[in-house]
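Marked as duplicate of an earlier ticket. Keeping the data here for the record.
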Amino acid sequence: MFLKATRKTVRGKTYINHLLVESISTPKGPRHHTICSLGALQPAPREHWLALAHKLEAALSGQQSLLPDTSVDSLCQRVQAQPLSAQPQRVSVIPDQIEIEEAREVGSVYVAHQMWRRLKLDAILGKAGLNQRARLLTEVMAINRLVAPASEHAMPEWVRRTALADLLHADFRLLNDEALYRNLDRLHPQRALIEGELAAREKELFALPESIYLYDLTSTYFEGQALRNQKAKRGYSRDQRPDCKQVVIGLVLDGDGFPKAHEVFDGNRNDSTTIEDMLTALEKRVGKKAGATVTVDRGMAYDKNIQQICSRGYHYLVAARPEERWQHVQEFGEESGWEDIVRQPSATNPCQKKTQVSLKQCLVGEEVHVLCLSEQRKEKDRAIRELQEKRLLANLESMSRGIAKRKKKPRSEADVNQAIGRLRERYSRVGRYYQIRYEAERRALIWEADAALKRRAERLDGSYVLKTDRRDLTKEEIWRHYILLTRVESAFRAMKSPLMERPIFHHLAHRVETHIFLCVLAYHLLATVEKTFLDQGVHTSWATLREQLASHQVVTVVLPTSDGQEIRIRKATTAEPAHKAIYQVLRIPEIIIEPVGSRIVTERPRN
Protein backbone atom coordinates (compact mmCIF):
# COMPACT_ATOMS: atom_id res chain seq x y z
CA MET A 1 0.00 0.00 0.00
CA PHE A 2 1.06 3.59 -0.52
CA LEU A 3 -0.26 7.16 -0.38
CA LYS A 4 -1.43 9.13 -3.36
CA ALA A 5 -2.19 12.86 -3.22
CA THR A 6 -4.99 14.46 -5.26
CA ARG A 7 -5.63 18.16 -5.79
CA LYS A 8 -8.87 19.90 -6.62
CA THR A 9 -9.40 23.63 -7.09
CA VAL A 10 -12.81 25.12 -6.27
CA ARG A 11 -13.44 28.89 -6.61
CA GLY A 12 -9.74 29.59 -6.59
CA LYS A 13 -8.98 27.53 -3.50
CA THR A 14 -6.98 24.28 -3.75
CA TYR A 15 -7.95 21.27 -1.63
CA ILE A 16 -5.49 18.42 -1.09
CA ASN A 17 -6.72 14.93 -0.29
CA HIS A 18 -4.63 11.83 0.38
CA LEU A 19 -5.78 8.38 -0.67
CA LEU A 20 -4.64 5.02 0.63
CA VAL A 21 -3.95 3.04 -2.55
CA GLU A 22 -2.75 -0.43 -3.52
CA SER A 23 -1.62 -1.81 -6.89
CA ILE A 24 -3.62 -4.72 -8.30
CA SER A 25 -3.31 -6.78 -11.51
CA THR A 26 -6.07 -6.56 -14.11
CA PRO A 27 -6.46 -8.02 -17.63
CA LYS A 28 -5.31 -4.62 -18.91
CA GLY A 29 -2.23 -4.50 -16.69
CA PRO A 30 -1.49 -3.12 -13.19
CA ARG A 31 -3.96 -0.56 -11.88
CA HIS A 32 -4.28 1.55 -8.70
CA HIS A 33 -7.16 0.66 -6.36
CA THR A 34 -8.26 3.24 -3.78
CA ILE A 35 -8.91 1.75 -0.34
CA CYS A 36 -10.06 4.91 1.45
CA SER A 37 -9.56 8.64 1.76
CA LEU A 38 -7.28 9.88 4.55
CA GLY A 39 -8.02 13.58 4.19
CA ALA A 40 -5.40 16.32 4.07
CA LEU A 41 -3.08 14.63 6.63
CA GLN A 42 -2.06 18.06 7.82
CA PRO A 43 -0.64 19.52 9.99
CA ALA A 44 1.04 16.10 10.60
CA PRO A 45 4.66 15.98 9.28
CA ARG A 46 5.19 14.29 5.89
CA GLU A 47 7.40 11.56 7.35
CA HIS A 48 4.41 10.37 9.43
CA TRP A 49 2.23 9.77 6.35
CA LEU A 50 4.07 6.66 5.10
CA ALA A 51 4.19 5.25 8.65
CA LEU A 52 0.42 5.67 8.82
CA ALA A 53 0.00 3.76 5.54
CA HIS A 54 2.14 0.89 6.88
CA LYS A 55 0.15 0.75 10.12
CA LEU A 56 -3.13 0.64 8.18
CA GLU A 57 -1.84 -2.17 5.95
CA ALA A 58 -0.81 -4.20 9.01
CA ALA A 59 -4.11 -3.57 10.80
CA LEU A 60 -6.21 -4.53 7.77
CA SER A 61 -4.26 -7.77 7.40
CA GLY A 62 -5.17 -8.74 11.00
CA GLN A 63 -1.93 -7.82 12.79
CA GLN A 64 -2.32 -6.36 16.26
CA SER A 65 -0.20 -3.47 17.50
CA LEU A 66 1.36 -3.47 20.97
CA LEU A 67 0.57 0.26 21.23
CA PRO A 68 -3.04 0.98 20.27
CA ASP A 69 -3.53 3.97 17.93
CA THR A 70 -7.05 5.41 17.97
CA SER A 71 -6.56 7.20 14.62
CA VAL A 72 -5.56 3.94 12.92
CA ASP A 73 -8.48 2.07 14.52
CA SER A 74 -10.87 4.73 13.30
CA LEU A 75 -9.59 4.53 9.72
CA CYS A 76 -9.79 0.70 9.77
CA GLN A 77 -13.43 0.89 10.79
CA ARG A 78 -14.11 3.29 7.89
CA VAL A 79 -12.51 0.89 5.40
CA GLN A 80 -14.35 -2.14 6.77
CA ALA A 81 -17.64 -0.24 6.73
CA GLN A 82 -17.38 0.24 2.91
CA PRO A 83 -19.62 -1.92 0.68
CA LEU A 84 -17.95 -5.19 -0.36
CA SER A 85 -17.77 -4.04 -3.98
CA ALA A 86 -15.67 -1.05 -2.94
CA GLN A 87 -13.19 -3.15 -0.96
CA PRO A 88 -10.33 -5.04 -2.63
CA GLN A 89 -10.92 -8.77 -2.82
CA ARG A 90 -8.54 -10.74 -0.67
CA VAL A 91 -8.06 -14.43 -1.26
CA SER A 92 -5.77 -17.14 -0.01
CA VAL A 93 -3.44 -18.91 -2.47
CA ILE A 94 -2.74 -22.64 -2.13
CA PRO A 95 1.11 -22.76 -2.35
CA ASP A 96 1.55 -26.45 -3.18
CA GLN A 97 -0.75 -26.14 -6.22
CA ILE A 98 1.00 -23.15 -7.87
CA GLU A 99 1.96 -23.96 -11.45
CA ILE A 100 4.09 -22.38 -14.19
CA GLU A 101 2.69 -22.81 -17.71
CA GLU A 102 3.35 -21.76 -21.32
CA ALA A 103 7.04 -20.98 -20.88
CA ARG A 104 8.24 -19.32 -24.07
CA GLU A 105 11.73 -18.10 -25.02
CA VAL A 106 11.75 -14.33 -25.28
CA GLY A 107 15.29 -12.92 -24.95
CA SER A 108 16.52 -13.30 -28.55
CA VAL A 109 13.21 -12.48 -30.22
CA TYR A 110 12.81 -9.46 -27.94
CA VAL A 111 16.19 -8.06 -29.01
CA ALA A 112 15.37 -8.74 -32.68
CA HIS A 113 11.98 -7.02 -32.28
CA GLN A 114 13.61 -3.98 -30.69
CA MET A 115 16.18 -3.76 -33.53
CA TRP A 116 13.30 -4.02 -36.01
CA ARG A 117 11.68 -1.04 -34.31
CA ARG A 118 14.96 0.87 -34.16
CA LEU A 119 15.39 0.51 -37.93
CA LYS A 120 11.73 1.58 -38.38
CA LEU A 121 11.19 -1.38 -40.63
CA ASP A 122 7.45 -1.42 -40.03
CA ALA A 123 7.18 2.11 -41.46
CA ILE A 124 9.49 1.16 -44.35
CA LEU A 125 7.33 -1.86 -45.23
CA GLY A 126 4.23 0.35 -44.99
CA LYS A 127 5.82 2.79 -47.42
CA ALA A 128 6.37 -0.17 -49.75
CA GLY A 129 2.62 -0.80 -49.74
CA LEU A 130 2.46 -3.83 -47.43
CA ASN A 131 -0.59 -4.04 -45.18
CA GLN A 132 -0.45 -4.63 -41.44
CA ARG A 133 -0.71 -8.42 -41.71
CA ALA A 134 2.07 -8.57 -44.33
CA ARG A 135 4.31 -6.35 -42.19
CA LEU A 136 3.70 -8.58 -39.18
CA LEU A 137 4.52 -11.78 -41.08
CA THR A 138 7.64 -10.23 -42.64
CA GLU A 139 8.92 -9.31 -39.18
CA VAL A 140 8.23 -12.82 -37.91
CA MET A 141 10.04 -14.39 -40.89
CA ALA A 142 13.08 -12.11 -40.57
CA ILE A 143 13.32 -12.72 -36.81
CA ASN A 144 13.12 -16.46 -37.43
CA ARG A 145 16.13 -16.30 -39.76
CA LEU A 146 18.07 -14.36 -37.11
CA VAL A 147 17.17 -16.51 -34.09
CA ALA A 148 16.42 -20.09 -35.25
CA PRO A 149 16.23 -20.39 -39.06
CA ALA A 150 13.55 -22.79 -40.28
CA SER A 151 11.65 -23.52 -43.46
CA GLU A 152 8.27 -21.93 -44.02
CA HIS A 153 6.75 -25.31 -43.27
CA ALA A 154 8.41 -25.53 -39.83
CA MET A 155 8.22 -21.83 -38.98
CA PRO A 156 4.63 -21.66 -37.58
CA GLU A 157 5.44 -24.23 -34.91
CA TRP A 158 8.62 -22.34 -33.98
CA VAL A 159 6.64 -19.09 -33.68
CA ARG A 160 4.26 -20.76 -31.23
CA ARG A 161 7.22 -21.91 -29.13
CA THR A 162 8.43 -18.33 -28.67
CA ALA A 163 6.96 -15.25 -26.99
CA LEU A 164 6.40 -13.45 -30.31
CA ALA A 165 2.65 -13.51 -29.69
CA ASP A 166 3.20 -11.61 -26.42
CA LEU A 167 5.62 -9.12 -27.99
CA LEU A 168 3.61 -8.43 -31.15
CA HIS A 169 0.16 -8.72 -29.51
CA ALA A 170 -0.89 -11.15 -32.23
CA ASP A 171 -2.59 -14.53 -32.33
CA PHE A 172 -0.47 -17.08 -34.19
CA ARG A 173 -2.46 -20.18 -33.26
CA LEU A 174 -3.83 -20.53 -36.80
CA LEU A 175 -0.65 -19.49 -38.63
CA ASN A 176 0.31 -21.96 -41.36
CA ASP A 177 2.98 -22.31 -44.04
CA GLU A 178 0.60 -21.27 -46.83
CA ALA A 179 0.27 -17.79 -45.30
CA LEU A 180 4.05 -17.49 -45.21
CA TYR A 181 4.42 -18.57 -48.85
CA ARG A 182 1.83 -15.99 -49.87
CA ASN A 183 3.77 -13.37 -47.94
CA LEU A 184 6.91 -14.20 -49.90
CA ASP A 185 4.95 -13.43 -53.06
CA ARG A 186 3.76 -10.05 -51.70
CA LEU A 187 7.24 -9.10 -50.51
CA HIS A 188 9.13 -9.95 -53.71
CA PRO A 189 8.26 -6.88 -55.87
CA GLN A 190 9.18 -4.44 -53.09
CA ARG A 191 12.70 -5.67 -52.33
CA ALA A 192 14.61 -2.83 -54.00
CA LEU A 193 12.47 -0.10 -52.39
CA ILE A 194 12.79 -1.66 -48.93
CA GLU A 195 16.55 -2.10 -49.29
CA GLY A 196 17.01 1.52 -50.35
CA GLU A 197 14.89 2.91 -47.50
CA LEU A 198 16.69 0.69 -45.01
CA ALA A 199 20.10 1.89 -46.19
CA ALA A 200 18.95 5.50 -45.70
CA ARG A 201 17.68 4.74 -42.19
CA GLU A 202 20.95 3.09 -41.14
CA LYS A 203 22.98 5.97 -42.53
CA GLU A 204 20.89 8.35 -40.39
CA LEU A 205 20.96 6.13 -37.31
CA PHE A 206 24.71 5.41 -37.25
CA ALA A 207 26.02 8.41 -39.25
CA LEU A 208 27.54 6.02 -41.79
CA PRO A 209 29.90 7.48 -44.42
CA GLU A 210 29.44 6.34 -48.00
CA SER A 211 33.02 6.74 -49.19
CA ILE A 212 33.74 3.00 -49.60
CA TYR A 213 31.72 0.25 -51.26
CA LEU A 214 32.86 -3.36 -50.84
CA TYR A 215 31.64 -5.81 -53.48
CA ASP A 216 32.01 -9.57 -53.60
CA LEU A 217 30.07 -12.65 -54.66
CA THR A 218 29.20 -16.06 -53.32
CA SER A 219 27.04 -18.97 -54.38
CA THR A 220 24.31 -20.93 -52.64
CA TYR A 221 23.00 -24.30 -53.75
CA PHE A 222 19.64 -26.04 -54.07
CA GLU A 223 18.31 -29.35 -52.84
CA GLY A 224 16.50 -30.98 -55.75
CA GLN A 225 16.51 -30.29 -59.46
CA ALA A 226 15.04 -26.74 -59.31
CA LEU A 227 13.43 -27.22 -62.72
CA ARG A 228 11.15 -24.20 -62.33
CA ASN A 229 13.95 -21.74 -61.62
CA GLN A 230 15.67 -20.34 -64.70
CA LYS A 231 18.57 -18.97 -62.64
CA ALA A 232 19.38 -22.32 -61.04
CA LYS A 233 22.41 -23.63 -62.94
CA ARG A 234 25.60 -25.51 -62.27
CA GLY A 235 28.71 -23.39 -61.96
CA TYR A 236 31.72 -22.71 -59.79
CA SER A 237 30.53 -23.63 -56.29
CA ARG A 238 31.96 -21.80 -53.27
CA ASP A 239 30.14 -24.39 -51.13
CA GLN A 240 32.05 -27.33 -52.65
CA ARG A 241 28.81 -28.71 -54.09
CA PRO A 242 29.40 -28.89 -57.87
CA ASP A 243 26.78 -31.65 -58.00
CA CYS A 244 23.99 -29.18 -57.14
CA LYS A 245 22.44 -26.35 -59.08
CA GLN A 246 23.03 -22.94 -57.57
CA VAL A 247 22.56 -19.19 -57.87
CA VAL A 248 25.25 -16.53 -57.49
CA ILE A 249 24.67 -13.71 -54.99
CA GLY A 250 26.34 -10.33 -55.24
CA LEU A 251 26.48 -8.17 -52.10
CA VAL A 252 27.64 -4.58 -51.60
CA LEU A 253 28.54 -3.37 -48.10
CA ASP A 254 29.72 -0.03 -46.82
CA GLY A 255 32.92 0.35 -44.82
CA ASP A 256 31.07 -0.39 -41.55
CA GLY A 257 29.65 -3.68 -42.83
CA PHE A 258 26.04 -2.64 -43.50
CA PRO A 259 24.44 -4.03 -46.68
CA LYS A 260 23.66 -1.47 -49.36
CA ALA A 261 22.43 -3.67 -52.19
CA HIS A 262 22.30 -7.29 -53.28
CA GLU A 263 21.47 -9.11 -56.50
CA VAL A 264 20.80 -12.73 -57.45
CA PHE A 265 22.49 -13.91 -60.66
CA ASP A 266 22.43 -17.11 -62.71
CA GLY A 267 24.36 -19.96 -61.13
CA ASN A 268 26.91 -20.08 -63.96
CA ARG A 269 27.48 -16.31 -64.13
CA ASN A 270 31.13 -15.31 -64.32
CA ASP A 271 32.21 -12.90 -61.58
CA SER A 272 33.71 -10.37 -63.97
CA THR A 273 30.41 -9.94 -65.86
CA THR A 274 28.44 -8.77 -62.82
CA ILE A 275 30.05 -5.38 -62.13
CA GLU A 276 27.81 -3.33 -64.43
CA ASP A 277 24.58 -4.90 -63.15
CA MET A 278 25.64 -4.57 -59.53
CA LEU A 279 26.54 -0.88 -59.84
CA THR A 280 23.16 -0.25 -61.49
CA ALA A 281 21.40 -2.00 -58.60
CA LEU A 282 23.46 -0.03 -56.06
CA GLU A 283 22.56 3.30 -57.64
CA LYS A 284 18.87 2.37 -57.65
CA ARG A 285 19.06 1.74 -53.89
CA VAL A 286 21.23 4.59 -52.62
CA GLY A 287 21.69 6.93 -55.57
CA LYS A 288 24.94 7.79 -57.30
CA LYS A 289 27.76 8.74 -54.92
CA ALA A 290 30.44 10.14 -57.23
CA GLY A 291 33.90 9.97 -55.72
CA ALA A 292 33.24 6.85 -53.65
CA THR A 293 35.76 4.00 -53.91
CA VAL A 294 34.58 0.61 -55.16
CA THR A 295 36.70 -2.26 -53.80
CA VAL A 296 36.62 -5.67 -55.52
CA ASP A 297 38.72 -8.82 -55.42
CA ARG A 298 40.96 -10.25 -58.15
CA GLY A 299 38.13 -12.13 -59.87
CA MET A 300 36.85 -8.74 -61.10
CA ALA A 301 40.21 -7.04 -61.66
CA TYR A 302 40.07 -6.98 -65.47
CA ASP A 303 40.58 -3.77 -67.45
CA LYS A 304 36.97 -3.89 -68.62
CA ASN A 305 35.70 -3.99 -65.03
CA ILE A 306 37.93 -1.09 -64.01
CA GLN A 307 36.62 0.95 -66.94
CA GLN A 308 33.03 0.18 -65.89
CA ILE A 309 33.75 1.49 -62.38
CA CYS A 310 35.51 4.64 -63.58
CA SER A 311 32.88 5.45 -66.22
CA ARG A 312 30.31 5.92 -63.43
CA GLY A 313 32.45 8.41 -61.55
CA TYR A 314 33.83 6.04 -58.90
CA HIS A 315 37.39 5.38 -57.82
CA TYR A 316 38.58 1.78 -57.81
CA LEU A 317 40.70 -0.44 -55.58
CA VAL A 318 41.30 -3.97 -56.83
CA ALA A 319 43.58 -6.90 -56.15
CA ALA A 320 45.57 -7.61 -59.30
CA ARG A 321 45.33 -11.03 -60.90
CA PRO A 322 48.21 -13.40 -59.92
CA GLU A 323 49.96 -13.20 -63.31
CA GLU A 324 50.27 -9.41 -62.95
CA ARG A 325 52.78 -9.93 -60.14
CA TRP A 326 55.42 -10.95 -62.67
CA GLN A 327 55.89 -7.37 -63.87
CA HIS A 328 57.04 -6.52 -60.33
CA VAL A 329 59.22 -9.58 -59.73
CA GLN A 330 62.34 -7.43 -59.52
CA GLU A 331 60.78 -5.06 -56.95
CA PHE A 332 59.63 -8.04 -54.89
CA GLY A 333 63.22 -9.31 -54.82
CA GLU A 334 64.65 -6.05 -53.48
CA GLU A 335 65.32 -5.80 -49.76
CA SER A 336 64.96 -2.02 -49.43
CA GLY A 337 61.90 0.18 -49.64
CA TRP A 338 59.53 -2.01 -47.61
CA GLU A 339 57.41 -0.84 -44.69
CA ASP A 340 56.15 -3.35 -42.10
CA ILE A 341 52.51 -2.97 -41.05
CA VAL A 342 50.96 -4.90 -38.15
CA ARG A 343 47.32 -5.92 -38.39
CA GLN A 344 45.72 -6.28 -34.98
CA PRO A 345 42.66 -8.52 -34.44
CA SER A 346 39.61 -6.72 -35.81
CA ALA A 347 36.87 -5.39 -33.56
CA THR A 348 34.30 -7.62 -35.25
CA ASN A 349 36.56 -10.67 -34.93
CA PRO A 350 38.68 -10.48 -31.75
CA CYS A 351 39.75 -14.14 -32.23
CA GLN A 352 41.54 -13.21 -35.45
CA LYS A 353 45.30 -13.73 -35.35
CA LYS A 354 47.71 -10.84 -35.31
CA THR A 355 49.36 -10.59 -38.74
CA GLN A 356 52.17 -8.60 -40.32
CA VAL A 357 52.54 -7.48 -43.92
CA SER A 358 55.32 -5.64 -45.73
CA LEU A 359 54.31 -2.95 -48.22
CA LYS A 360 56.03 -1.14 -51.07
CA GLN A 361 54.43 1.44 -53.35
CA CYS A 362 55.20 2.24 -56.98
CA LEU A 363 53.56 4.28 -59.74
CA VAL A 364 52.67 2.60 -63.03
CA GLY A 365 51.35 5.27 -65.39
CA GLU A 366 48.40 6.92 -63.66
CA GLU A 367 47.89 3.92 -61.42
CA VAL A 368 49.23 3.32 -57.92
CA HIS A 369 50.45 -0.23 -57.27
CA VAL A 370 51.03 -1.44 -53.73
CA LEU A 371 53.21 -4.57 -53.45
CA CYS A 372 52.32 -6.73 -50.44
CA LEU A 373 54.31 -9.53 -48.79
CA SER A 374 52.79 -11.64 -46.03
CA GLU A 375 54.58 -14.42 -44.14
CA GLN A 376 51.30 -16.19 -43.31
CA ARG A 377 50.23 -16.04 -46.95
CA LYS A 378 53.67 -17.23 -48.04
CA GLU A 379 53.15 -20.56 -46.31
CA LYS A 380 49.74 -20.97 -47.90
CA ASP A 381 51.00 -20.10 -51.40
CA ARG A 382 53.92 -22.51 -51.05
CA ALA A 383 51.61 -25.33 -50.02
CA ILE A 384 49.27 -24.67 -52.94
CA ARG A 385 52.14 -24.44 -55.42
CA GLU A 386 53.74 -27.67 -54.18
CA LEU A 387 50.39 -29.47 -54.33
CA GLN A 388 49.82 -28.26 -57.90
CA GLU A 389 53.32 -29.34 -58.88
CA LYS A 390 52.75 -32.80 -57.41
CA ARG A 391 49.49 -33.19 -59.31
CA LEU A 392 50.97 -31.86 -62.57
CA LEU A 393 53.82 -34.36 -62.42
CA ALA A 394 51.40 -37.18 -61.61
CA ASN A 395 49.27 -36.26 -64.63
CA LEU A 396 52.33 -36.08 -66.88
CA GLU A 397 53.47 -39.50 -65.71
CA SER A 398 50.03 -40.92 -66.40
CA MET A 399 49.92 -39.33 -69.86
CA SER A 400 53.39 -40.65 -70.67
CA ARG A 401 52.40 -44.20 -69.73
CA GLY A 402 49.27 -43.91 -71.85
CA ILE A 403 51.29 -42.77 -74.89
CA ALA A 404 53.73 -45.64 -74.47
CA LYS A 405 50.95 -48.24 -74.38
CA ARG A 406 49.28 -47.05 -77.59
CA LYS A 407 51.97 -48.22 -80.05
CA LYS A 408 49.58 -49.71 -82.63
CA LYS A 409 47.29 -46.66 -82.75
CA PRO A 410 49.27 -43.72 -81.36
CA ARG A 411 47.67 -40.40 -80.43
CA SER A 412 48.16 -37.58 -82.89
CA GLU A 413 50.60 -34.80 -82.07
CA ALA A 414 47.74 -32.28 -82.03
CA ASP A 415 45.77 -34.32 -79.44
CA VAL A 416 48.80 -34.57 -77.17
CA ASN A 417 49.54 -30.84 -77.42
CA GLN A 418 45.91 -30.06 -76.58
CA ALA A 419 46.17 -32.28 -73.49
CA ILE A 420 49.37 -30.47 -72.48
CA GLY A 421 47.61 -27.12 -72.86
CA ARG A 422 44.76 -28.26 -70.62
CA LEU A 423 47.25 -29.33 -67.96
CA ARG A 424 49.02 -25.96 -68.12
CA GLU A 425 45.69 -24.20 -67.67
CA ARG A 426 44.59 -26.43 -64.79
CA TYR A 427 47.90 -26.03 -62.93
CA SER A 428 48.71 -22.48 -63.96
CA ARG A 429 50.77 -21.69 -60.86
CA VAL A 430 53.46 -24.19 -61.85
CA GLY A 431 52.75 -24.77 -65.54
CA ARG A 432 54.50 -21.50 -66.44
CA TYR A 433 57.93 -22.74 -65.29
CA TYR A 434 57.72 -26.28 -66.73
CA GLN A 435 58.96 -26.98 -70.24
CA ILE A 436 56.76 -29.74 -71.68
CA ARG A 437 57.10 -31.10 -75.22
CA TYR A 438 56.02 -34.12 -77.20
CA GLU A 439 58.43 -35.84 -79.61
CA ALA A 440 56.15 -37.59 -82.10
CA GLU A 441 58.89 -39.64 -83.75
CA ARG A 442 59.98 -41.20 -80.46
CA ARG A 443 56.40 -41.06 -79.04
CA ALA A 444 57.91 -39.61 -75.90
CA LEU A 445 56.58 -36.97 -73.54
CA ILE A 446 59.41 -34.91 -72.04
CA TRP A 447 59.21 -32.33 -69.28
CA GLU A 448 61.61 -30.45 -67.04
CA ALA A 449 61.45 -27.47 -64.72
CA ASP A 450 63.15 -24.19 -65.69
CA ALA A 451 65.24 -23.57 -62.57
CA ALA A 452 65.40 -19.79 -63.02
CA LEU A 453 61.65 -19.43 -63.56
CA LYS A 454 60.97 -21.73 -60.61
CA ARG A 455 63.12 -19.59 -58.31
CA ARG A 456 61.24 -16.50 -59.49
CA ALA A 457 57.92 -18.22 -58.74
CA GLU A 458 59.16 -19.18 -55.27
CA ARG A 459 60.09 -15.55 -54.61
CA LEU A 460 56.49 -14.58 -55.36
CA ASP A 461 55.05 -16.87 -52.69
CA GLY A 462 53.11 -14.73 -50.18
CA SER A 463 52.91 -11.76 -52.54
CA TYR A 464 50.00 -9.88 -54.09
CA VAL A 465 49.48 -6.52 -55.77
CA LEU A 466 46.81 -3.88 -55.13
CA LYS A 467 45.88 -1.37 -57.82
CA THR A 468 44.01 1.92 -57.41
CA ASP A 469 43.57 5.33 -58.98
CA ARG A 470 43.54 6.96 -55.51
CA ARG A 471 46.81 8.85 -55.42
CA ASP A 472 45.80 10.71 -52.25
CA LEU A 473 46.14 7.61 -50.06
CA THR A 474 49.24 6.18 -48.44
CA LYS A 475 50.18 2.56 -49.11
CA GLU A 476 48.99 1.61 -45.64
CA GLU A 477 45.60 3.30 -46.18
CA ILE A 478 45.24 1.51 -49.53
CA TRP A 479 45.99 -1.85 -47.91
CA ARG A 480 43.66 -1.27 -44.96
CA HIS A 481 40.86 -0.23 -47.35
CA TYR A 482 41.36 -3.45 -49.28
CA ILE A 483 41.25 -5.77 -46.27
CA LEU A 484 37.81 -4.37 -45.44
CA LEU A 485 36.64 -6.90 -48.06
CA THR A 486 36.87 -9.47 -45.29
CA ARG A 487 33.66 -7.90 -43.96
CA VAL A 488 31.81 -9.10 -47.04
CA GLU A 489 33.22 -12.58 -46.47
CA SER A 490 32.04 -12.39 -42.85
CA ALA A 491 28.59 -11.32 -44.04
CA PHE A 492 28.41 -14.31 -46.39
CA ARG A 493 29.51 -16.65 -43.60
CA ALA A 494 26.83 -15.22 -41.30
CA MET A 495 24.13 -15.57 -43.96
CA LYS A 496 25.13 -19.16 -44.76
CA SER A 497 25.66 -20.50 -41.25
CA PRO A 498 23.69 -18.82 -38.42
CA LEU A 499 21.08 -17.35 -40.81
CA MET A 500 20.85 -20.63 -42.79
CA GLU A 501 20.63 -19.18 -46.28
CA ARG A 502 21.66 -22.56 -47.67
CA PRO A 503 20.53 -24.99 -48.88
CA ILE A 504 17.45 -23.56 -50.63
CA PHE A 505 14.36 -25.74 -50.86
CA HIS A 506 12.16 -23.34 -52.86
CA HIS A 507 11.47 -24.13 -56.52
CA LEU A 508 10.04 -20.84 -57.83
CA ALA A 509 12.58 -18.21 -58.84
CA HIS A 510 10.82 -15.28 -57.11
CA ARG A 511 10.52 -17.20 -53.84
CA VAL A 512 14.21 -18.07 -53.97
CA GLU A 513 15.03 -14.37 -54.38
CA THR A 514 12.72 -13.41 -51.49
CA HIS A 515 14.25 -16.13 -49.30
CA ILE A 516 17.68 -14.57 -49.91
CA PHE A 517 16.21 -11.11 -49.29
CA LEU A 518 14.89 -12.24 -45.89
CA CYS A 519 18.41 -13.45 -45.05
CA VAL A 520 19.71 -9.99 -45.96
CA LEU A 521 17.01 -8.38 -43.77
CA ALA A 522 18.06 -10.61 -40.88
CA TYR A 523 21.68 -9.62 -41.49
CA HIS A 524 20.66 -5.95 -41.16
CA LEU A 525 19.32 -6.78 -37.68
CA LEU A 526 22.50 -8.70 -36.84
CA ALA A 527 24.72 -5.85 -38.07
CA THR A 528 22.69 -3.35 -36.01
CA VAL A 529 23.19 -5.39 -32.83
CA GLU A 530 26.92 -5.89 -33.35
CA LYS A 531 27.50 -2.28 -34.43
CA THR A 532 25.74 -1.03 -31.27
CA PHE A 533 28.00 -3.19 -29.12
CA LEU A 534 31.09 -2.19 -31.06
CA ASP A 535 30.34 1.52 -30.70
CA GLN A 536 30.46 1.02 -26.93
CA GLY A 537 33.75 -0.86 -27.06
CA VAL A 538 32.22 -4.32 -26.50
CA HIS A 539 33.52 -7.00 -28.86
CA THR A 540 31.02 -9.83 -29.19
CA SER A 541 29.02 -11.76 -31.75
CA TRP A 542 25.34 -12.39 -32.26
CA ALA A 543 25.87 -16.13 -31.73
CA THR A 544 27.22 -15.46 -28.22
CA LEU A 545 24.40 -13.06 -27.37
CA ARG A 546 21.75 -15.45 -28.65
CA GLU A 547 23.07 -18.21 -26.42
CA GLN A 548 23.06 -15.94 -23.34
CA LEU A 549 19.53 -14.69 -24.02
CA ALA A 550 18.02 -18.16 -24.40
CA SER A 551 17.27 -18.44 -20.67
CA HIS A 552 15.06 -15.33 -20.54
CA GLN A 553 11.44 -16.44 -20.86
CA VAL A 554 7.82 -15.39 -20.57
CA VAL A 555 5.64 -17.66 -18.42
CA THR A 556 2.11 -17.91 -17.09
CA VAL A 557 1.93 -18.20 -13.28
CA VAL A 558 -1.19 -20.06 -12.14
CA LEU A 559 -2.25 -19.32 -8.54
CA PRO A 560 -5.11 -21.55 -7.28
CA THR A 561 -7.16 -19.89 -4.52
CA SER A 562 -9.08 -21.29 -1.58
CA ASP A 563 -12.44 -20.16 -3.05
CA GLY A 564 -12.20 -22.55 -6.03
CA GLN A 565 -10.83 -20.01 -8.50
CA GLU A 566 -7.40 -19.44 -10.00
CA ILE A 567 -5.41 -16.31 -10.80
CA ARG A 568 -3.38 -16.47 -14.01
CA ILE A 569 -0.60 -13.92 -14.49
CA ARG A 570 1.35 -13.70 -17.77
CA LYS A 571 4.75 -12.12 -17.18
CA ALA A 572 8.44 -12.32 -18.04
CA THR A 573 10.91 -13.94 -15.71
CA THR A 574 13.21 -11.57 -13.85
CA ALA A 575 16.12 -10.61 -16.09
CA GLU A 576 19.41 -12.14 -14.99
CA PRO A 577 22.58 -10.03 -14.79
CA ALA A 578 23.72 -11.24 -18.23
CA HIS A 579 20.37 -10.28 -19.75
CA LYS A 580 20.41 -6.87 -18.10
CA ALA A 581 23.92 -6.19 -19.36
CA ILE A 582 22.87 -6.95 -22.96
CA TYR A 583 19.73 -4.81 -22.74
CA GLN A 584 21.73 -1.97 -21.22
CA VAL A 585 24.29 -1.94 -24.03
CA LEU A 586 21.51 -2.08 -26.65
CA ARG A 587 19.63 0.67 -24.80
CA ILE A 588 16.36 -1.24 -24.68
CA PRO A 589 13.98 -1.61 -21.68
CA GLU A 590 14.52 -4.46 -19.23
CA ILE A 591 10.74 -4.78 -18.78
CA ILE A 592 9.79 -6.93 -21.75
CA ILE A 593 6.01 -7.05 -21.22
CA GLU A 594 3.69 -5.61 -18.60
CA PRO A 595 2.22 -8.37 -16.38
CA VAL A 596 -1.28 -9.38 -17.48
CA GLY A 597 -3.56 -11.08 -14.96
CA SER A 598 -6.99 -12.71 -14.98
CA ARG A 599 -9.18 -14.65 -12.57
CA ILE A 600 -11.27 -17.61 -13.67
CA VAL A 601 -13.39 -20.27 -11.97
CA THR A 602 -11.71 -23.66 -12.16
CA GLU A 603 -13.61 -26.37 -14.01
CA ARG A 604 -12.92 -28.92 -11.33
CA PRO A 605 -11.62 -28.69 -7.78
CA ARG A 606 -7.92 -29.16 -7.27
CA ASN A 607 -6.70 -31.98 -5.03
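See parent ticket for discussion. Residues 603-607 have pLDDT under 50 and may be disordered.
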